[in-house]
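BUG-234 | component: ligand-complex export | severity: low

The export step for adenosine-5'-triphosphate jobs runs without errors, but we want the raw record kept on the ticket for reference. Input record follows.
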Amino acid sequence: MLEITNLSVNYGAIRALTNISLDVKTGEIVALIGSNGAGKTTTLNTISGIVPVAEGSISFKGRNITKTPPHQIAALGIAHVPEGRRVFPRMSVMENLEMGAFTRNDREGVRASFEEVFQRFPRLEERKNQLAATLSGGEQQMLAMGRALMAKPTLMLMDEPSMGLAPMLVEEIFNIIRAINQSGTTILLVEQNAHMALSIASRAFVLETGNIVLAGAASELAANPEVRRAYLGE
Ligand code: ATP
């Protein structure tokens, strides 16, 4: 579904990604793990078209999107749940969700998506008229995920969904990610919580200072001594 080939990305004179290749197949959850500053967010922002590609290519469903602008990438079916949620604080929950459907004009379908999102996140329905700024961190994460679902994406890019959440909520968010995947959405998940990420992913890639240093089945990586030492706190 997603194919990244020999991708390099620079911020001015700083090279953030060096010749990385990774792929995500239809139906998978693929995890991208690595420490602070490794280039995980840059990878997602490059796929979304927010950060320009210096070298290499990105294709989605066989179509080259290397130079496609962000709004068109969204319209192709890639939704981004950004780091730090980035909900619109002065908009209500409903309005935030509506923003997620900006690429769609099938009113009936959008109405159905609202129903689906509220079914998945009953707490959002309870708070639908509340301003997003007044939600808790976990609720804002749910809103960011709900907003992405309103686009009816085939691929969801999730950046650190567990960041700053209490352990119980982390568990809940990961259960929801698994459920979203089981209902047919492919997921590329960036996480510092390698333990949780490897537990729900089928495959994973490890980034270190802009390079992919390891890749493989999530279960194999979870058993790899290097990964255990560097990312699983052993
Ligand atoms: P984190 O989990 O802290 O977000 P990350 O793995 O997502 O880390 P990136 O945010 O992608 O890493 O950063 C990769 C590298 O690019 C880092 O060295 C970072 O300092 C640098 N970088 C990121 N954004 C910019 C920017 N806008 N301008 C200059 N350098 C940047």
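Assignee comment: Attached the raw record above. Residues 11, 14, 16, 34, 36-42, 83, 192 surround adenosine-5'-triphosphate (CB under 6 Å).
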